[in-house]
Amino acid sequence: MKKLITNLILVTAFFLVMNVGVIGQTAYITNSGDSTVSVIDVQTNTVVATIPVGPNPFGVSVSLDGTKVYVGNGGSNSISVINTATNTVSATIFIPTPPNGLSVSPDGSKLWVGNSGLNMVSVINTIVDTVLANLNISYQPMGISVTPDGSKVYVANYFAYSVGAINTSTNSLLATIPVLIYPAGITVSQDGSKVYVANDYINGVVSVINTATDTVIASISDGSWPYGISISPDGSRVYVTHNHDSTLSVIDANADTVLTTIIVGLHPVGVSVSPDGSKVYVANSGTNTISVINTSTNTVSATIIVGNNPVAFGNFISSANVGISSLTNTPPILSIYPNPSNGLFTISNNSQLSSRFNRDNSQLIITDVLGNIIYQQSKVTENTVSIDLRTQANGVYFVKMITNNETLIGKLVKEN
Fold it and tell me: What percent of the chain lies above the pLDDT cut of 90?
């Protein structure tokens, strides 16, 4: 992410003080028929809230840290921004035409939106909720997916039978990749090496793209009319909805073959995998339900009633591995600077750490977006810690400062 605010010298990271405990993820289902979003607790499979949004919501994307949900409203040419702490709409962003797919960048700074009528992709600054640019580089853009390092965006061009690869630094088209007829859903593997595309046609095929060469390396025969698509966190399974025959197919991503087909509700559209990979959620637009799939048995383990005509096209499950069980109103204890940076960061506790933490039992842990630990330090004895991540890939990293019964969390952004 290039500097969005000029002359930015110090960025203070906002840390949430929370009690340690098991925190569940949340699913956000767009209900096109009644202009709402159903909020589902993934641990209990129950609807915990219903949020009014704009008319005919379709696409959805959850920020990586789980604090915001972006909903594309086809009936008002707008994006609703949901604050997940309050389950309310905090902002509405207007774009030129009805939005289709949308995807938020890993660092949370940009939102990429496919505009159906003018065949363009809008780039939105999510810090100030305004449109940065409208890119005329797509033809009926449907699904959109950003790579984990934030360097590329892949757009399914429904009527052009192709996928566009966009350079996020320059907002320019890197490549146009021919696929098959009517590419709709699209997803990037969490290691960033592959893109999977559901081609919405009677002779259904899932195209597999190598992101290093931006070429199709496999075509997987997959029933008829594949539409929504999602990949498991470990990259071993790809899940595809079939809107016309009301099924979900399970693809072995290593062998590029269909393992099994599961009957779900009528006319499924969106699909997302839980962050731990144990469940798959399918939005059934024809029965106003969500099918929950147990990935160990590939069977439907629960059915959840939601609003009218649920579609949930995109990534609709929060992937944040930490949540909030209690907040304090105290000022931030830690600051990170510079942030973003080329990899050299300083973490400072503003000389307040000793009053809240037992230093002998403290740990500083930094993980990547997949939860892999890339830095760990025990007994944080100094008020200021210097971290060198220059050998790591560009992208988002999460920080935890742990001691006794408290954990502080935050986010680093590494870029060149």
Answer: 61
